[in-house]
């Protein structure tokens, strides 16, 4: 130590790289780091006392710097607790302040200033306290603030510059801090021209300008990509048949789909989705509709759900239908969302082998709330629609769409309408058990068909009770044309044989009935027993005379909705 130039005396703990009175700055002390490097050898390897003294001096200087920083924070109206917690995470920045304060000794204006004055001046000039206040205002925790300040590498102005740029692309205030923290790489070191180029490329690919702030706020990793990587990730989706509109809306719905996952992980998920029998274009349309699938893990989400569907007897084609129609089911926790609903179906009497068909036919069922949607509908069917406990499982298995109907706006209105026709509650329950979709039709569709059945076809209400599927057929395309054919040929069938067959089968049935009538009218009572057996069930048992010139209106009390209708006469051509 005797060979080294003496330093200017300072207060205890003061350390300078060189003495300010040295005529040659290159003859100063060696770097501080070399004082602790025992391998390189600087003449102090054996002087443990001097090393210990220097370490203690540095610790004293660091503590002094910490107190100066806390004092600046208190002047900025930060609490002592917050200042202490923040400083505990700012060790790198405190060391940076120490080095800069020491180097300021070379400046003429600080030639005779103490370390405290220089450190305080540097902290004030860096504007670190206002930046801390702004970051705290944007809901960043003190570890995040400390991490951001340390990552700036002393260029605190870069934080403010990037924040102003984020505001210009409409990133919301509370997301600006998150973007600064979560952006990978040294985003603070990138020029604004590079960032503008990234935004311009996204706009060129279909992302609207108004969406940019939302997307960057949710996926700041985009700002850390080079243009080559950004283009490769974008082409990954365009190669699956997406256009600019699909890509823009997909990125808006789920910004992480572009920058959060690695290319390898994205390829693995696309390959797994193709195993359901989807083509490359099908996967593209699926991701455009539900990009959140890209955020679901194969081992965590996809495989457990597929195994459960397989246990329920759902085929690969059924799984593909569920995936295409309700892809959100592959993004939820099936143990809490799906298993409870499947167990409820078992409890109400749906057979095990029918549960899979129910889910494939109506996947929306699994997205409904069990206690707010599914259970109330089942209770309504049991208490208000006349469905028995024995038939409720059959009703849900045949018509799971009932669980998606509103009780107040659909089911209750339909039940009241059928009861107003003179149908008893027990009969309505049997009708629903035979044809559950009966309660899903709009009354505006039901009313004209019922009116035609009672007024034009002159059928009793019992026919409707026996065959509730009558309401499922088109009035103009099926009911009216076939009724006219029956009138023209002077034959009559039950509703089941009139409607529930193809046109060819119906024409054959009409032809057979006409032949029987002609033989009867000619006095030939020897009928073909086989033909009689085949058609006997389809012929109405009550008398119906087609020879009369008109069909009188049935003498029954109809609903008030039909009392204002005129009597209808059907002219029968000879």
Automatic annotation (TrEMBL):
GO biological process terms held by the UniProt record: DNA-templated transcription termination
GO molecular function, one term: nucleic acid binding
Domain of life: Eukaryota
Keywords: Transcription, Transcription regulation, Transcription termination, Transit peptide
Similarity-based family: Belongs to the mTERF family.
PANTHER family: CGI-12 PROTEIN-RELATED, TRANSCRIPTION TERMINATION FACTOR MTERF2, CHLOROPLASTIC
This protein's name: Transcription termination factor MTERF2, chloroplastic
